[in-house]
Write a structure and sequence with these properties.
Elements lengths: L2 E6 L1 H5 L3 H11 L2 E8 L3 H7 L9 H8 L4 E7 L3 H9 L12 H5 L8 E3 L3 H11 L13 H4 L2
Antiparallel strand pairs: 1-3, 1-4, 2-3
Bound molecules: 2'-deoxyadenosine-5'-diphosphate and magnesium ion.
Length: 149
């Protein structure tokens, strides 16, 4: 089953958007497979954003992620990686379409509320970076027959 890694960033938690964001993934029809509130270490934040380590915004990005708790999640379902990116919207919240999470709740790229894996391989890497095997539940939602033929 396809899975993706979603993180509600410190601004999303501080702005009390956790319930609203989880609601959107639930209502779309995806299944929650892992969930934890955590204070992120610098080491984890740096590993997570390793691909951006040469970018000018890397340090402020890491500072931001470790500044206050985040909600780390694993969501599963067919096509969840690409669909989650659509639910999240463009990286710059001012460019993100209304109806997306960033489009509805954000105004600045450095405070864009949420992270979602950008590809299936990235999702696998990020899930294993953030979650242990035991922290992920494999289960089937009883609504499945009402969501899929
Ligand atoms: P995304 O989070 O949409 O996958 P990304 O991987 O390009 O975007 O960048 C990771 C995060 O880094 C992004 O959510 C916010 C921050 N970021 C990206 N580009 C930035 C920029 N030009 N200035 C400041 N922060 C930026
Ligand atoms: Mg990215």
């Amino acid at each position: 089953m396809e899975r993706t890694f979603i993180m509600i960033k410190p601004d999303g938690v501080q702005r009390n958007l956790v319930g609203e964001i989880i609601k959107r993934f639930e209502q779309k029809g995806f299944t929650l497979a892992g969930l934890k509130l955590m204070q992120v270490s610098r080491e984890l934040a740096e590993k997570h954003y390793d691909v951006h380590k040469e970018r000018p915004f890397f340090n402020s990005l890491v500072e931001f992620i470790v500044s206050s708790p985040v909600v780390a999640m694993v969501w599963q379902g067919e096509g969840v990686v690409a669909s989650a990116r659509k639910l999240i919207g463009a990286t710059d919240p001012l460019a993100a379409e209304p109806g997306t999470i960033r489009g509805d709740f954000g105004i600045e790229i450095g405070r864009n509320i949420i992270h979602g894996s950008d590809a299936i391989e990235t999702a696998q890497r990020e899930i294993s970076l953030w979650f242990s095997e035991e922290e992920i539940c494999s289960w089937e939602n009883s609504m499945k027959p009402w969501l899929k033929e």
